[in-house]
Design goal:
The chain is α/β, with parallel strands linked by helices. 37% of the residues lie in helices and 22% in strands. Helix 12 links the parallel strand 12 and strand 13. The radius of gyration is 27 Å and the shape is globular.
Length: 678
């Protein structure tokens, strides 16, 4: 089967993120932040995907989809690509530093700092940092410390007695303080990393030793992030997650990134202590690591260093209304974040909390903010005597601890909390408010593509349908019943519900387009997804293309389908948009011979989403909202500034379009700005 390998496709996606850091059209500090996003993405890739690949190697699996070679050979290929990207990363970083210097903002280190600047920095160290620094001497008498894979470390080399005696030590860089320290002198500004502040003070930290030289080199490493849940039925799911989180902190190392200037004796010592092999788990890099902290790089109060402000806009059907519930009962509403306000969802819950006619609120939660406005609104509903049911997914990777915290708080205050099922994550985005008026039950319902998270709603592009349409609302009620009653099976005619009918429904919709194309009728498929990896659906799309169905897809991340293959996928064109906002919405449009059908969904077209998760997609039935979905796709498809073509060679070539450059995300903002005035 013709496929692009999943891991290599993901690396191509992350290279698109790196392109943003190199793009001079992107404001300067935003480029630095894209380096942070790239680094954070890569950390997660190694913790999850590369760790899984190494497990495949361990069990001697011989083949990998989309790659002509073994898992071991794929691992080598991944390492080659990461090293190439590392070179581009370093180039981008140095370019940004140079351009900041040209604007009067200078990066200091322990070698370039002046005497007066060092006094300011040392005062900061002594007053704030000193007591958070814990040096650990490394020797045969002391067990090597357990390292955290979310941290950065300085490996210290102390040379004494005429350079004949060597001591090694470790310092964990404190995470509770900002990584960047700013100084100002006249019209110039300076920034120094905490790493270098510590380097400047190594002589004070190790003052009890006499030495000829002392140096420190940054490194970090990444552990396998898989959660192993045992089958002990005497232990609750909550307890299993808590136990597995502790075990994750002891997971096997899968990557060791280090300052390439690190002396061989120090590098060998660390690799031996961590049971790693040079050239297999190791990646040499520059002086600084854990660039994810650069997501918070300061903007220095220079507006031109950041994107132009685009505050979320009001929705004309909701703004200024006395009752959001009554507005939704009157007509369907589609919200598009971050262009429009997420506040409406919090306000909807707050209204439901005090509405005497509201009986219950049900919601399923995957990821929420740490100090979540959504969760606080649900607590307000509990305090007001509403029946609140929260289906909380404890297995949301890297958000497990936050979800455990909220599970405890909700239960303590009287909410009913239901956990996801061990082997079936609940990834849908549903909310339902039951209101009784004149003895009639009304179901105010939310079906979304993204999380109930007010922070991510400022940067993630997502869609949310608010409706009281009985066809949709009654089936969402069935989904909640399914989750509350241990997978009580329901029949769904309108919704796409994984793992029950979603795959079958999508297949049926594609088959209908194939049938229409063969009959000479209008046939097309337009898809917007994060990832496309499901082999059976890819094969079905190949069949549709071969039958004459025109297929246009916007895939942000992984795409295993190869477009443009003669006789197979010539009718398929795929683009990827990486820009200011993370494209996260998922929707589908099927031509249906001139009467198009529209769906939004929480699910990507991946095996896990269709077969191993609870996911929900809903039809968009309102004609005005269908037109809005068309406009979103049209704007993004027309985009030429941030659109790359997805091709077999994974080269991330920018798409060329006729006419003036069209910046899709900027133009969508103006589109919603105009709508807000209607």
């Amino acid at each position: 089967m013709n496929l692009i390998n999943r891991e290599l496709s993901w690396l191509a996606f992350n290279e698109r993120v790196l392109q943003e850091a190199l793009d001079p059209r992107v404001p300067l500090v935003e480029r630095m932040r894209f380096l942070g996003i790239y680094s954070n993405n890569l950390d997660e890739f190694f913790r999850v995907r590369v760790a899984n690949l190494r497990r495949m190697i361990a069990v001697h699996k011989r083949t990998v989809d989309g790659f002509e070679g073994t898992p071991a050979e794929l691992y080598i290929e991944i390492r080659k690509k990461v090293l190439k990207q590392q070179a581009k990363f370093e180039l981008a970083y140095h370019k940004i530093v140079e351009e900041l210097a040209a604007k009067g903002i200078f990066h200091l280190d322990e070698n370039s700092i002046s005497v007066s600047q060092q006094k300011v920095v040392n005062d900061y160290f002594n007053s704030t940092l000193k007591h958070a620094i814990i040096p650990i001497l490394l020797d045969k008498k002391t067990p090597f410390p357990r390292l955290r894979d979310s941290s950065i470390y300085l490996a210290v080399r102390i040379l004494s007695e005429n350079k004949q005696k060597i001591k090694f030590a470790l310092i964990k860089i404190p995470s509770e303080f900002p990584r960047f320290f700013r100084l100002k002198e006249g019209d110039s500004e300076f920034v120094i990393l905490m790493d270098d502040i510590i380097r400047l003070n190594l002589k004070h930290i190790f003052s009890i030793f006499s030495f000829d030289s002392i140096d420190a080199f940054t490194f970090k490493f990444t552990r396998d992030a898989e959660l192993d849940l045992d089958d002990d039925i005497s232990v609750s799911f909550f307890e299993k997650i808590e136990k597995s989180l502790k075990q994750r902190k002891k997971g096997k190392p899968v990557r060791f990134v280090y300052d390439e200037r690190m002396p061989k004796d120090l590098l060998d010592y660390l690799l031996n202590a961590l049971n790693l092999k040079f050239g297999i788990n190791t990646i040499p890099g520059g002086k600084y690591h854990n660039f994810k902290d650069f997501i918070s790089f300061p903007s220095f109060e220079h507006p031109e260093f950041n994107y132009q402000p685009q505050p979320p806009l009001c929705h004309h059907d909701l703004e200024g209304k006395k009752s959001l519930i009554k507005s939704i009962l009157e007509k369907d509403v589609l919200l598009h974040f971050p262009y429009q306000k997420f506040d409406y969802i919090v306000d909807l819950l707050r209204e439901a909390a005090i509405d005497p006619k509201v009986r219950s609120i049900k919601i399923n939660v995957y990821r929420v903010a740490k100090n979540s406005q959504i969760m606080n609104a649900l607590l307000a509903a509990v305090y007001n005597g509403k029946e609140v049911t929260v289906v909380l997914e404890l297995q949301a990777r890297f958000d497990e601890e936050n979800n455990l915290y909220w599970a405890d708080r909700l239960k303590e205050n009287g909410a009913r909390v239901i956990y996801g099922i061990q082997d079936l994550k609940v990834h849908s985005k549903l909310l339902q408010i039951t209101r009784i008026s004149n003895r009639q039950e009304k179901l105010v319902t939310y079906v979304g593509t993204g999380n109930f998270n007010e922070k991510s709603a400022l940067i993630y592009g997502d869609l949310a349908l608010l409706t009281a349409e009985p066809k949709v609302a009654n089936e969402v009620k069935k989904v909640f019943r399914l989750l509350e009653n241990n997978l009580e099976r329901g029949i769904f005619k309108e919704l796409m519900v994984s793992p029950f009918n979603a795959r079958r429904k999508i297949n049926t919709l594609i088959e209908r387009e194939i049938k229409h194309a063969k009959a000479g009728k209008e046939a097309f498929i337009r898809l917007k997804l994060n990832n496309l990896t499901d082999k059976r659906l890819i094969e079905k799309l190949y069949a549709a293309s071969s039958s004459g169905v025109k297929i246009e897809m916007i895939i942000r991340g992984i795409c295993c389908l190869i477009p443009g293959l003669k006789g197979k996928s010539e009718n398929i064109t795929i683009i990827s948009i990486v820009d200011r906002y993370l494209e996260h919405a998922r929707f589908m449009i099927f031509a249906n011979n001139g009467t198009p059908e529209y769906f939004i969904s929480s699910a990507d077209w991946m095996e896990r989403n269709l077969d191993k998760r609870i996911e929900v997609g809903a039809p968009i039935l309102d004609k005005a909202l269908q037109t809005e979905i068309d406009t979103i796709f049209e704007y993004q498809w027309k985009g030429s500034v941030k659109s790359r073509l997805i091709r077999k060679d994974l080269k991330n070539v920018y798409r060329k379009a006729e006419g003036k450059p069209f910046h899709a995300q900027v133009m969508l903002y103006y589109y919603y700005k105009d709508k807000a005035l209607i």
